[in-house]
């Protein structure tokens, strides 16, 4: 059950390619990362978890940069096991999925606390198109502050109960994931700092599914820490 104790042992492998010219506010280059985790050598948690993310940054005229990014992750239980909250994916927040609160996109608990308790998902995907540009202010340009407009897409879902005894591959639920994809557009300011990228954004929900417990925010301040 969700509230019981479990023992997990796992092997994890991460592979990264990074050709970006700047790790906080890149103007050109590619970033790719693949992270895989296999649990079940010891203990009672048995699953395979894979998460991929990518970024493409293209410099345009007049110091304008087009950035395209996306991520995909799935959690596949093995040997008849089930997924657990501690291993699932949580989506939302002012950087990963702008316009949604932290853990604001994905399955939620039932009952009176349905809007408060995020349960996490077994399958998620996000995508973003971002256009950044210099601002007409010498002071802001001195501190590297830029403006940007963006569109974010994403979904995070549970695959619980799908397939035969939950043994079907979770990627078989990709059509369901796409059919309920959320969308947000917005604009804001981007500030590079010593600890990472700081954003102040205003967001418009283009597609929000309140009946699934989506938790959104119009104004957001977020920090993407430099890895």
Written description of the protein model:
This protein is mainly β and 227 residues long. It is 5% helix and 47% strand. It has two helices and nine strands, in the order E-E-E-E-E-H-E-H-E-E-E. It has helices at 138-142, 174-179; strands at residues 8-18, 29-43, 47-59, 65-77, 123-134, 146-157, 182-192, 196-207, 219-225. The chain has a nine-stranded antiparallel β-sheet. The longest helix has 6 residues, at 174-179.
Structural class: mainly beta
Contiguous runs where pLDDT drops below 50 for at least 5 residues: 162-167
What share of residues is helical? under 10%
Which geometry do the CA atoms define? globular
Count of beta strands: 9
Spatial order of strands in the largest sheet: 1-2-3-4-5-6-7-8-9
Major pleated sheet: 9 strands, antiparallel
Relative strand content = over 45%
Distance from first to last alpha carbon: 34 Å
Q: How many DSSP helices?
A: 2
**Strand-and-helix sequence, N→C?**
EEEEEHEHEEE
Mean pLDDT: 90
What radius of gyration results from the CA coordinates? 19 Å
Question: Can you summarize this structure?
Answer:
The protein has 227 residues and is mostly beta strands. The protein has helices at 138-142, 174-179; strands spanning 8-18, 29-43, 47-59, 65-77, 123-134, 146-157, 182-192, 196-207, 219-225.
Present the secondary structure layout.
Blueprint: E1 8-18, E2 29-43, E3 47-59, E4 65-77, E5 123-134, H1 138-142, E6 146-157, H2 174-179, E7 182-192, E8 196-207, E9 219-225
Provide keyphrases for this structure.
mainly beta; 2 helices; single chain; 227 residues
């Amino acid at each position: 059950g969700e509230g019981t104790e479990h023992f997990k042992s796992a092997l994890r492998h991460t592979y990264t390619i990074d050709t970006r010219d700047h790790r906080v506010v890149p103007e050109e280059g590619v970033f790719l990362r693949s992270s895989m985790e296999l649990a079940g050598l010891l203990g009672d948690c048995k699953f395979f978890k894979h998460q991929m993310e990518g970024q493409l940054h293209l410099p345009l005229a007049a110091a304008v940069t087009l950035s395209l990014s996306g991520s995909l992750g799935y959690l596949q239980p093995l040997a008849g096991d089930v997924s657990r909250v501690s291993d699932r994916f949580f989506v939302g927040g002012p950087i990963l999925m702008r316009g949604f609160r932290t853990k604001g996109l994905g399955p939620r608990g039932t009952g009176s606390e349905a809007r408060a308790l995020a349960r996490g998902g077994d399958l998620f995907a996000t995508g973003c198109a971002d256009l950044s540009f210099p601002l007409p202010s010498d002071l802001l340009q001195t501190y590297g502050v830029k403006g940007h407009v963006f569109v974010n897409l994403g979904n995070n879902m549970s695959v619980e109960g799908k397939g035969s005894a939950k043994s079907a591959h979770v990627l078989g639920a990709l059509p369901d994931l796409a059919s309920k994809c959320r969308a947000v557009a917005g604009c804001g300011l981007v500030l590079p700092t010593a600890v990472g990228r700081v954003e102040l954004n205003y967001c418009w929900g283009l597609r929000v599914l309140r009946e699934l417990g989506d938790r959104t925010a119009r104004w957001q301040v977020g920090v993407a820490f430099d890895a």
